[in-house]
What does this fold into?
Amino acid sequence: MTSDSALFFGQFVRSPATIGALAPSSQRLAEVVCAPVPERGDPVIVELGPGTGPFTAEIQRRLGGRGHHLAVELNERLATLLSDRFPSADVVCDDAARLPELLAERGLSHADAVVSGLPWAAFPRELQLRLMDAVTSVLSPVGAFTTFSYIHAIPLPPARRFRELLASRFEEVVPGRTVWRNPPPAFVFHARRPRS
It folds into this structure.
């Protein structure tokens, strides 16, 4: 077990409801989930629940020093690890529901894309709604939101409820293909154009 996997698993054992997975996401899943990060310009990219940083690394690679990358991690130990590992990312240890305030504190008016590693299917309805309100309130009118669900969770009521929430909050929701090279396999959702 790698050191990141061991750290991630330890944090999962301490707080399974907020970590939501046994191991970090794979590089392949990171590539698919981070696809909306623009290749040009100076975009504002928000990352929710970065964990040990597989999505963070992919976002940083895609940005190549451009724009602003805000990574919001609730777990203090993981946030510290990310700050040390990715000094060019703006890592904050805070609640993702405070996203509008976090952007305002940085003088940023909106996000061009929100990439989420949060365990949406593990959250109760009220928390799903609160977090989605935060996401849609900061996205630009043409902004993109990307997240994933583990394939085994798709038929469960919280995961179905989350898919319905996505459909109600975005004009376009495109289910991506299953990423089989991720333990466990994951299903990606790409959502665009938040409804006002």
In short: The radius of gyration is 15 Å.
